[in-house]
Design goal:
heterodimer, A: 769 residues, alpha+beta, Immunoglobulin-like, 16-stranded mixed sheet, five-stranded mixed sheet, 14 helices, B: 130 residues, mainly beta, 9 strands, DUF11 domain-containing protein (chain B)
Chain lengths: 769, 130
């Protein structure tokens, strides 16, 4: 066999070790650093190859050799075969591939072949037939999974990672075999690559699997007594790491409601996580209204429970402000790497409760649409956080029982629709909130829906729904952070596109953001407000597509006379959103009771120009100092990005800037200490003409505007804003009209022309440039 | 002109190109090797590697390929202009100076789509030159 080239060998080794870190199962020594030294080594290649082999050998559980037919033979490596009961452990695999075969590496363990979705990392297993699958899983105490990336590159030697699950404790014998699945050209539909790989191995009477005597450390259920500061039971996000930094339950494979793309899991008071004996670092939090609480515990033989008291630093609901996230998915991008049905309302409500949200709008969209739409009822719901497919859960060792809490009723779900993956999606993704009928008239499949958005917006309005646009800033970046700016965007993606046509025709109510750069998101909103439209803006997450962290990364707070509860909770919340005090952002800063001349109403009228008095209560919380930068090799988005109060921090201080915005321009700026203390705002500004006013801390919080009309004249604050909107309609037509069906293009053109005319009329009414 | 993305971008991309890029309805970019072998490269010669693009997100604007430098490897990574249509094809060029085997890391970004957020995808590509 020829020796592997050094550069790709080292790259493969570093990637495999990085994967062990990612899976929460890092090597106990500084293997990364030693690999980096070898990359810089001037020693002969043969010496470096030998050193790589010696360095990684202690962590290699399987040595695998691929023959000229693509059949793999496995033998035990040097890593001790130590597993943990009802948990996952990850190990290196060293692959000798002298015939340079390119293929996918798959783990086949007896009894579960073809059952667990090996390729998708899906949060829920594919369940083609749960009735027959469950007994097979239950009878198989050992499961294996090859971590991504799982492709063999054709290099003569490379390293991969395999994760192993043990249902049992004690000493157990077992066998492991990884197969090499080649993808033929053209694709064969009759047998999958893995079926063909298994078939090849059946042709010869020799042993391909490696046999082990596994030592499986016993684990047991540790109860988490997590509670609100006042002692009430609740759901929280709990992260558990052992003294080697390994996560529990392992992210190597999780079943809903635990997600592989989270490190944390959501647990209610009295629910459990299985842990072996040892030292653990436990962190609990319940969304941005709480400071993370860290508890170091020693799980001993007599330990039964861990007590955690949450640390809430702000209580908006206590001041009448109720949080909502208008854009989360039960079949989102990370749920459906290989499309499955997504997760159930019982899982989604657990995640919403665990982030301390009052309302979560679960939007059905293209992927998983026909499965998820069954959960639409036209009402808000607050189901118990039951486990999905409990028979499957039990077969996998998840035997815990969901527990109700004292505050479960506070969190509600409302199933609605995001028009994404539909024929009109090119014109921006429409969110429909508060539908009574989710099926567009005359359609059977989503491909039948209109190929532009206006008819859908009007259909939503006809049902009394609130309609608007998702992830508003996507495709609207113009290379500047200036706000407002007058650069016409190319409308290259799926943000607020057709909103500039729909708003002047009275067919769009809002846009959602608080996800990416404020200039991309707020510019279009400011221009619409500047010419007098009452467009709303909301904070959203698009969980788990734009953000995987959890629901409520972006959120919206609405002041209501009473909590949004019952089947009409969403309707109460959206009614308050349209008329009352409201703000949106990341939940790390808040603006309560924003008022002009003591009135929190969104519309004010005065007879003459002159000063008005702006008041509010502003509160924010940051840790004492900035966080460390992300570790080398970590993606940038693991650090605070988009809307996050950390990015508003002034230098290394604990202060953040508050700004008063008048007609899109920040006219007053001051700083507050973000230590959780409430700051009273009171200042006077002079108004020369009808205007809109808002408060903001960018990129963390922004209020809805208050409109002040003087002498009965409408807000016409900027001629340039009207012109920008007019010119943007032209740019939008250029970008999108080709995707509109021929049969609908004439009506679309008429609507675009009507919007252009509306902007020109308002431009001529503007009093200022 | 009419080119509507299906509701679900399921299944493999029908292509003989060695690399496939898919953009989902929420504009997430994913890149993967297909079953097509790259074959051996010849020292000093430019080789064209095809990339099939399936765009379920109507994303327009530049699709850029970024790669950290690797000794002895020249890469010609033109920016491909996405039109928003469902299927497009693109390619990039590679030249190895000598007979060797190297790995290049190619990151595909639909730059104008998400401003750098949640749209990255990296492929570790082994190039063999004899």
């Amino acid at each position: 066999m020829s020796e592997p080239a050094l550069q790709p060998l080292l790259a493969s080794a570093a990637r495999a070790v990085h994967t062990l870190h990612e899976l929460g199962d890092p090597p106990p020594t500084d293997v990364d650093g030693q690999l980096a030294k070898l990359e810089r080594s001037s020693s002969p290649d043969d010496d470096v190859r030998r050193e790589v082999d010696e360095l990684l050998r202690p962590f290699v559980l399987l040595d695998l050799r691929v023959d000229e037919h693509g059949v793999a033979t496995c033998t035990p490596g040097a890593a001790p075969p130590r597993l943990v009961q009802h948990g996952w452990r990850s190990f290196l695999v060293r692959i000798a591939n002298p015939h340079r075969i390119e293929a996918v590496l798959l783990a086949l363990t007896r009894g579960v072949f073809g059952l667990v979705d090996q390729q998708s990392h899906a949060a829920r297993t594919v369940l083609p037939d749960a009735l027959t699958s469950v007994p097979r899983i239950r009878d198989s105490w050992l499961q294996a999974k090859v971590a991504a990336p799982d492709g063999l590159s054709g290099l003569e030697v490379e390293y991969k990672v395999v994760s192993l699950y043990s249902r049992e404790a004690g000493s157990r014998s077992g066998a492991l075999w990884l197969c090499v699945a080649e993808e033929p050209i053209p694709e064969r539909l009759s047998r999958t690559p893995e079926q063909r790989a298994a078939g090849k191995a059946m042709l010869e009477p020799r042993e391909y699997a490696a046999s082990f005597q596994f030592d499986c450390v016993a684990s047991r259920d540790i109860r988490f007594d997590v509670r609100e500061p006042d002692g009430r039971s609740c759901v929280a996000a709990i992260t558990v790491r052992d003294d080697q930094g390994r996560s529990y339950p392992s992210t190597g494979m999780r079943l809903a409601p635990d997600m592989f793309f989270h490190e944390h899991v959501y647990r209610a008071t009295g629910e459990v996580i299985r842990l072996p004996l040892g030292q653990f670092e436990i962190t609990a939090v319940r969304g941005p209204e709480y400071r993370p609480v860290r508890v170091d515990v020693d799980i001993a033989a007599d330990t039964e429970a861990v007590d955690v008291r949450l640390d809430r630093w702000v209580d908006p609901a206590g001041r009448g402000y109720y949080s909502g996230d208008p854009h989360i998915h039960a079949g989102g991008c990370s749920h459906y790497n290989v499309p499955t049905e997504g997760v159930t309302p019982e899982t989604m409500i657990r995640h919403v409760r665990g982030e301390g949200l009052w309302l979560g709008s679960v939007l059905t969209w293209g992927p998983c649409y026909y499965h998820q739409k069954q959960f639409f009822s036209g009402e808000s719901i607050s189901p118990p956080a039951l486990l999905e497919h409990p028979d499957m859960q039990q077969a996998q060792g998840m035997t815990w029982s969901p527990q109700p809490t004292d505050v479960d009723h506070q969190s509600m779900l409302r199933y609605d629709v995001e028009v994404s993956g539909f024929p009109s999606s090119h014109s921006g993704h429409v969110i429909l909130l508060g539908l009574s009928d989710q099926n567009y008239p005359g359609t059977t499949w989503i491909e039948d829906w209109p190929s532009w958005n206006l008819p859908i917006m009007r259909w939503g309005h006809s049902q009394g729904a609130l309609v608007g646009y998702a992830h508003c800033g996507l495709g609207l970046s113009v290379g500047t952070d200036e706000l407002p700016n007058h650069v016409v965007p190319a409308f290259q993606s799926i943000g607020s596109n057709e909103i500039i046509v729909d708003v002047p025709l009275g067919a769009a109510d809002f846009q959602c953001g608080a996800e990416i750069a404020p200039a991309a998101e707020l510019n279009i909103w400011y221009h619409l407000l500047n010419v007098g439209y009452r467009t709303l803006m909301l904070g959203e997450t698009d969980y788990p597509c734009i953000y995987d962290d959890g629901p409520g990364v972006g959120r919206t707070y609405v002041r209501l006379p009473e909590p949004p509860q019952g089947p009409r909770a969403l309707e109460a919340w959206t009614a308050g959103l349209q008329d009352g005090p409201s703000y949106f952002g990341d939940g790390r800063s808040h603006v309560f009771d924003f008022a002009v001349d003591g009135d929190v109403g969104r519309e004010r009228a005065t007879d003459t120009p002159g000063p008005v008095r702006v008041t509010a209560t502003v509160v924010a919380w940051l840790p004492d100092g900035p966080p460390p930068p992300p570790a080398q090799g970590r993606p940038a988005y693991s650090a605070p990005v988009g809307w996050h109060l950390e990015r508003a921090r002034v230098g290394d201080t604990r202060t953040v800037p508050v700004e008063l915005v008048l007609n899109g321009v920040a006219v007053v700026r001051w700083e507050i200490v973000a230590d959780g203390t409430e700051h009273e705002v009171a200042l006077e500004i002079g108004l020369e003409r009808s205007s809109w006013i808002a408060l903001r801390i960018l990129p963390s919080v922004h209020t809805q505007p208050i409109f002040v009309e003087i002498g009965g004249r409408p807000v016409r604050a900027s001629r340039r804003s009207a012109q920008w909107l007019h010119d943007s309609v032209d740019a939008l037509w250029k970008a999108k009209s080709g995707f509109i069906r021929d049969s609908e293009r004439t009506a679309a053109r008429e609507a675009y022309d009507a919007a252009r005319a509306a902007y020109l009329a308002r431009r001529d009414e503007c009093e200022d440039d | 002109m009419s080119d509507h993305a299906p509701g679900c971008g399921c299944g493999p991309i029908d292509t003989t190109a060695p690399i496939a890029v898919s953009i989902n309805p929420e504009a997430r970019v994913t890149v993967a090797r297909t079953g097509t072998a790259l074959g051996d490269l010849i020292p000093g010669q430019w080789h064209t590697i095809g990339v099939a693009v399936r765009n379920d997100g109507f994303v327009a604007g530049p699709l850029a390929i970024e790669a950290p430098p690797v000794n002895g490897v020249d890469l010609d990574l033109p920016v491909h202009e996405l039109t928003g249509h469902h299927r497009q094809d693109t390619a990039f060029g590679v030249r190895l100076h000598t007979a060797t085997t190297v790995e290049v890391n190619l990151t595909f970004r639909a730059l104008a789509a998400l401003g750098g957020l949640a749209n990255h995808s990296t492929l570790h590509l082994l190039l063999r030159c004899t």
